[in-house]
Amino acid sequence: MKKGLIGIQMSTIKKKVDELGAYETLRACAEMGYHCMEVSQIPMTAENVSGMRKACDEFGVKIAACSASLEPAAAGMPGEYLTTHFDKIVEDCRALNTDMLRIGMLPATCMGSREKALDFVKKADEMAERLEEHGIDLYYHNHHVEFVRYDGQYLLDIIKDNTRKMGFELDIHWIHRGGENPVTFIRRYAGRIRLLHLKDYRIAHVTPPEDPSGLKEFFGRFHNLVEFAEVGEGNLPIRECIEAGLAGGSEYFLIEQDDTYGRDPFESLIISRDNLIAMGYKDWFEL
Predict the structure, then answer these.
(1) Mean pLDDT across the stretch 210-237?
(2) How distant, in Å, are the alpha carbons of 46, 63, 64, 96, 244 from that of 56?
(3) What angle do CA 187, 191, 195 make, to 5 degrees?
(4) Cβ density class 55-75: b for 16+ within 10 Å, e for less
(5) Is the pLDDT of residue 20 over 90?
(6) pTM higher than the cut 0.90
(7) C-alpha dihedral over 23, 25, 26, 31, to 10 degrees?
């Protein structure tokens, strides 16, 4: 039976990498039953790359994708970018035996401008063609900002319609926050989504004020109740999203939780794992 591979988006455990190192962090994840990682927000130092490589070899971990930005937002901004560190980024992908690279978000300098966004998209698609020559596919990860409309069309759809080589890593939380049903939206992108982010969405509990003097603080909280949730602990139709992704060509289903609100990230990942197993996806944790 056709199945995907469930893994972890490493931004969820970046503090663990800072604390334990890449090798020991991936060891702990493998012991929890996770054998797939997407590298994001992890410094691609020689130490981290070699630690991840060693963990892959020793614990049977698959790196689904690495991450990179297209170019610096401003001249001289430090960091590794595809326009300035192309060979290094390709070498890192090869070292980690992955054929996918992802752009994590639309540059802030392009937000609010259709023209700037399209200029970025043109350069990203050209970069996707260049990466293809090295056996690497480029994917773009959405947030909610791409659901702004220009002439009645979502920016994300404009990006899709103006790219040939670049694929998409759809994030179910941000699709929902953008005002769309993630299941139906995933189906629209069938054939261009090898990666899918499993990120749940919940509304936090709110405590009413004891007296009128607390109303201002109460309504400030009232208007900001959206939280990131462990998979299966929120309001999104996780099973339906997974099945739509699988039908549309998704191979990797990465758990991401931007904030665990004081809970240890490993504990959150155990909760997500147990909920997904209860949904019937136990064998999706195995290579």
Answers:
(1) 86
(2) 15, 8, 11, 8, 29
(3) 85
(4) bbeebebbbbbbbbbbbbeee
(5) yes
(6) yes
(7) 120
- Nearest to 66, CA basis, from 83, 90, 84: 90
CB atoms within 10 A of CB 139: 21
Q: How many CB atoms lie within 10 A of CB 240?
A: 15
Determine how β-strand 195-198 pairs with β-strand 167-171. Answer: parallel
Mapping DSSP to helix (H, G, I), strand (E, B) and coil, where does residue 226 land?
Answer: strand
Total number of domains constituting the chain? 1
Determine the 3-state secondary structure of 219 from DSSP: helix
Domain range for 189 is: 5-285
User: Is 10 within 8 Å of 16 (Cβ atoms)?
Assistant: no
CA–CA dist 220, 224 (Å, integer): 7
Sign of CA dihedral 27, 29, 34, 37: negative
CATH of the domain at 26: 3.20.20.150
Query: Which amino acid, 268?
Result: S
Tokens encoding 267: 């504990």
**Per-residue pLDDT tens over the stretch 27-54:** 999 999 999 999 999 999 999 999 999 9
Instruction: Give alpha helix (H) positions in 21-165.
Output: 22-32, 46-59, 86-95, 114-132, 155-161
